[in-house]
Amino acid sequence: MARAQSLFLILSLISQCFAWTALIPVSNSSSYIFLKQMKVFPNVMTVCDRDTTFPHCDISLNRNYEYRTLPEKTMDMFKKAIDVLPDENVFLKYDDDVIVDYQYVLSVVKDIESNGRLYFGDPMACMGAATGHNDARCMNGKFYGVSRPIAECFANLVEDSDIVTSLEDVFFGSTVWAKCKYLGFQYEASKESLIWHKVYQNRNKCASLAFKGDHETCMVASGIY
């Protein structure tokens, strides 16, 4: 127990020492109350479309987006984040239907900060034709992170003509490889057992993180009604 408490204290100090931000794109249906319960909340920057009526928008973009234009949203998000957060060294991107173990988040931040040239996440193949190299890796959009030099390179060099897919994570990873491989960055795979996407389940807890019904449906599904 004492060892675990010491580790948590060390990781908490890491959270205070490192300059990092978790970018979370939100919509009108996103739960601000849920986000406030997450331990990463002090480092969260919510990202909103132009007409989003979310209760609290930290970064407001100049356009509205739909599923097929999420690459444009990713491009605009990083351009804006780099501009308004000049002192951040680590950028994490969360979907709003994801929970990540907090101590693991802090260890990821430490790895990215210490490396200085790291692209972290759940690896998947990129588009060989777009990247010019079949060994390039894209990280699943649910949760990934990059060092500032990679984020800056992407934000400064990406162009509208680079968008050749509607998949924002494939677009980001492919563009990072094509435009930023001169940085000599490294890939690091995430530990998926510490990341919950769409559904959280641990022992006697099970919850939908992407619920699309109404209050009554939720109550029935939970066995409360």
UniProtKB/TrEMBL annotation:
It is found in: Golgi apparatus membrane. Pfam families: Galactosyl_T. Residues 1-19 form the signal peptide. One of its GO terms (molecular function) is hexosyltransferase activity. The keyword Transferase applies. Gene3D superfamilies: 3.90.550.50. It is a single-pass type II membrane protein. Keywords: Glycosyltransferase, Golgi apparatus, Membrane, Signal, Signal-anchor, Transferase, Transmembrane, Transmembrane helix. InterPro entries: Glyco_trans_31. The keyword Transmembrane helix applies. GO terms for cellular component: Golgi membrane. Its main location: Golgi. Belongs to the glycosyltransferase 31 family. This is Hexosyltransferase. It comes from Umbelopsis ramanniana AG.
